[in-house]
# Entry
Amino acid sequence: MSASPKKFVYGIFNDDEVVLNAIGSLRKKGLKVKDVISPFPIHGLDNELGLDRTRISICAFLYGMTGMSLALLMIWYMNIFDWPMDIGGKPSYAFYKNLPAFIPVTFESTVLCAAHGMVITFLLRSKLLPGVEPNVIHPRMADDHFVMAIQIKDDSEIANVEAQLKSAGAVEFINK
Amino acid sequence: MGHHHHIEVTSTKPYEFTRKNRMIAGVMMIIGLLAIIAQFATHHEQTWSNLLMNNFMFMGMALCATFFLAVQYVAEVGWSAVIKRPLEAMGQSLPVAGGIMIVIIALGGHHLYHWMDAELFDPKSPKYDEIIAGKSGFLNPTFFWIRVVAYFVIWTYFAKLFRKNSMLSDEGDGVGYWRKNRAAAAKFLVLFAVTESTMSWDFVMSVDTHWFSTLFAWYTFSGIFVTSIAALVFTVTYLKSKGYLPEVTEHHLHDIGKFMFAFSIFWTYLWFSQFMLIWYSNIPEEITYFMLRQDHYRGLWLASFFINFITPFVILMTRDAKRKLYLLMGMSIVVFIGHWIDTYVMIIPGSMITAGHHAAEGAAHVAEHGEAAISIGSIGLMEIGTTIGFIGLFMYLVQHYLSKSPLVAKNHPMMEESLHHAI
# Structure
C-alpha cells in the first residue's frame, strides 16, 4: 500500500522580487506553496516560506566533538600509551602535562571532521551525491530563473493554479 | 514593494545623562580617587602598577572603539550604522586616557619600567645590563616620549575627526561626510597598525624588559579589542534597557554578540600561540616570563584563560544566546572581568619586580635582601577601588558624549540598510 506520489505544478518566474512577493499572495488564495528554488540566496525567502531554521549547526557541533575526541584518543594512544614520547624536552609522559603540544592537532581534527561532516550531510540531505540523477525542473533554474512548487491533489486543479500563478507573475508552467 | 515597509529613525534626541547616573559615575570616581590616595599614603608598592594596568585598559577600550569605527567606514559596512554614535562616544576618552598615561609614566615610570634606570646603559656602572643596553635604540627616554605623545595626538585627532564629521552629517550631507570619514579611516588604520604594535611594546612588553615576544602586539590587540567590544555591548544593551535605540534590533545584537564571541576565541588563539611556542622550546630567556606567572600568579593566570575562553565559547555559541539583551549584557561584564585579570597578569608581575627593586634601593635594603626576594602583586580593596574609579570615569565620559548628539546619525548613507538589517 503506497501513497500516491505528490503532484506539483511548477511556476517559473524570472524575477526574485516577484517570486518573493508571490508567496504570500498565492497562499492567501489558498494555494499550497511548498518551496521555491533559486539560483542564488534571496533575502527573506526562508522567512516568507516559513521554513524551519537549518539544523546543520547542531550537526557541525556533533561532528566537531567527534573530531576532537578522535584526535585526543589518537594522540594519547600514539604519544603516551603505545610509545611514550619526550615532548619539548619535558619527559613527563603524562597526557595532561603534554596537552599544549596536542592542541594544534586536536583543533585541526575538530575542524576537519566538522567541515567534512557538514558538507557530506548537506549533500546527502539534498540528494546531490555523485551519480544521482539531478532533478532538473527547468533548464534555467540554476541560471536566472526561479521555480515555485505548488502541491495539488489532482489534475483538475491544474488550470486554476496556472491561472493564479500567471496573475502572480509566473512566465512558464510545468506540471509533473 | 509589498512587505518592505519604510522604517523611520526614531532616535532623534540625545541620551539624557540623568542626575542619578551622574551621581553613580561620580561616586565611582571618588572611590577610585580615595583608593589611589590611600595607596600613596601607605607607600603601597603596587600603586603605579595599578594605575598603569587600569589606565591601559581604559585607553585600550577607547582606542579600539575608534579602530572598530574606522573599520566600519573602510569596509563600507551597512548594518552598524545605528551603533556608530556609541562607538564615537567611547573614542572620546582617548585624550583623557592619554593625559593620565603621561602623568603616570612621568611620575612613576621608574617604578614600572626597569629600563628607565639610566645606569643600566652605562658600561662603567655595576648595574650595567648588556641585554637592556642592546635595546637602547628603541627603549631610550627621548624616543619613548616622542612615541607616547605621537600616539595620543594621532589617536585623539582621528577620534575627534570621526565624531565631528558624523555630527556635521546630521545637518544634511550624509554622503559627503561619510566619504570624508572613509578617507580619514583608511589613513587611521595604517597609523593604527603601527602605533598599536609599538604602543603594546612601550606600555606593556617593556615592563618585562629582558623578555620579548614577536606576537605580543597581536596578543595585546586581541585583548583590548575584545574588551572594547564588551564595553560596546554593555553600552548598547544598557541604552536599549532604558528604552533608547529602538533602531537596534536583535539582529544588531546578534552581530555585536558574534564579535564578542569571535574575538574571545581570537584572543585565546593568540594567548595559546604565544604560550605554546615558548613552553615547547623552553629556552631560558623566554620561559622566565611564564615561570614567573606560573609560580606566583598561577590562579589568576589560569583564570584569565578559562574565563576569557570557555565562558564566551560555551555561553555565546548558540544563535539564541547572542540575541538576548540581558544575557549579552551579563557576558560583557564577564569578558571585562576576564580581561581585567589578563591585563593584570600581563603587567603586574613584571612591574612589581621593578617597583620592589626601586623601593628596596630607596631604603638601601639591597645588600640585606639581595636579588632573591621579589615583590608579588595582590588584589585587594585598593586594586578593586582603583578599577571602580576608572570604570566610573569611562562611564561618565561615554554618557557625557552620548548626551551631546542624537543617538543615531540620521543621514548616514547606509541607515536604511542598517534599519532593515536581518540575519
Summary: Residues 7-39+141-175 of chain A form a domain with the Alpha-Beta Plaits fold (CATH 3.30.70.120). The mean pLDDT of chain A is 91.
